[in-house]
Automatic annotation (TrEMBL):
Keywords: ATP-binding, Nucleotide-binding, Transport. It holds the Pfam family ABC_tran. This is ABC transporter ATP-binding protein. One of its GO terms (molecular function) is ATP binding. Belongs to the ABC transporter superfamily. CDD domains: ABC_BcrA_bacitracin_resist (cd03268). InterPro entries: AAA+_ATPase, ABC_transporter-like_ATP-bd, ABC_transporter-like_CS, P-loop_NTPase. PROSITE patterns: ABC_TRANSPORTER_1, ABC_TRANSPORTER_2. Gene3D superfamilies: P-loop containing nucleotide triphosphate hydrolases. SMART domains: AAA (SM00382). It comes from the Bacteria.
Length: 301
């Protein structure tokens, strides 16, 4: 089967500004994929190109093998990109019935999707009376009307309070467990960490890492306290390259797998460097994210 999402060499320029640059990314069937990056990184632009709402400057997107404009491109896709437009004085249920009629999906899905997003009890209330979290869940319900195989959500928890966020996370997990492939964007690391199988990190329009959350966290660093630190740093750079070596608080941080520790130690001692400490530095995911998105370390194998 063709992957739900395949993005190759995708770029988008707005005048002098490059919003997305040479992006490659694949979302596999059945996974919940988190597209993670700070504000302005190019997430929405990418999702809009995927849906055919804007044209790429170069590169390609395919959804289940079909490019925008080709038959069936969005047949199996539900998306919540911009806040959906609902009628404030209609109930949630009536809003969905209307959308189902426009979309030609038939009203039979309305109770199903209301149940999926846990809004059945409040379905008769006016949309205007909904909390932000309920509005957002109704948006997801609308995206689910045509029973999509791929659901695309742009910042689904944006603006929600902690309870609303938790509800939305639970909903996305349920959908993923039910076999729906989900691609969601977020600038919140904690969020993708809790619900995603894999994460692609985007910074300034470029994909800087793609892996499972566990792997991302597993990009541990070796911390080496050594004297003189300058000589230690040049030995390490000669071994691993400049981008894997940093000096932090007077100690070396090496973005290399832990099993390289003895090789590091031997090379430093050979070079006449005194090593007083060499240990694995546990890396907080927040640190990893900051390093990845601030032009520091890139992908650490
Ligand atoms: N229509 C447009 N014209 C000009 N520049 C644009 C346009 N749309 C987006 N941009 C710029 O492209 C860059 C990426 O924007 P984008 O909205 O894709 O980022 P994002 O990762 O979704 O961030 P956010 O979470 O803030 O929405 C930004 O610098 C933005 O200002």
């Amino acid at each position: 089967m063709k992957p739900p999402v395949q993005i190759e060499g995708l770029s988008k320029r707005y005048g002098g500004l490059t919003a997305v640059q040479d992006l490659d990314l694949t979302v596999r069937a059945g996974e919940v994929y988190g597209f993670l990056g700070p504000n302005g990184a190019g997430k929405t632009t990418t999702l809009r190109m995927l849906l055919g709402l804007i044209r790429p400057t170069s590169g390609q997107v395919r959804v289940f093998g079909a490019r925008p404009g080709e038959p069936g491109h969005l047949r199996s896709v539900g998306a919540l990109i911009e806040g959906p437009a609902f009628y404030p004085y209609l109930s949630g249920r009536d809003n969905l019935r209307l959308l189902a009629r426009y979309a030609g999906t038939g009203a039979h899905r309305v109770p199903v999707v209301l149940d999926l997003v846990d809004l059945t009890d409040r379905a008769g209330d006016r949309y205007a009376a909904y909390s932000l979290g309920m509005k957002q869940r109704l948006g997801v319900a609308a995206a689910l009307l045509k029973d999509p195989r791929l659901l695309i959500l742009d910042e689904p928890t944006n603006g929600l309070d902690p309870a609303g966020m938790a509800d939305m996370r639970a909903l996305i997990r349920r959908l993923g467990a039910g076999g729906c492939t989900v691609l969601l964007s977020s600038h919140l690391l904690g969020e993708v960490q809790q619900i995603c199988d894999r994460v692609g990190v985007i910074s300034k329009g470029r994909l800087v890492a793609e892996s499972s959350v566990a792997e991302l966290r597993g990009t541990a660093a070796l911390r080496v306290v050594a004297e003189p630190v300058d000589r230690a740093a040049s030995v390490a750079r000669a071994l691993f390259g400049d981008d894997r070596v940093r000096v932090v608080d007077g100690a070396l941080e090496l973005a290399v797998p832990p099993e390289r520790a003895s090789a590091v130690n031997a090379a430093l001692v050979d070079a006449g460097v005194a090593v007083s400490e060499l240990r694995l530095r546990e890396r907080d995911l927040e640190d990893v994210f900051l390093e990845l998105t601030s032009g520091g370390l890139t992908h650490v194998a």
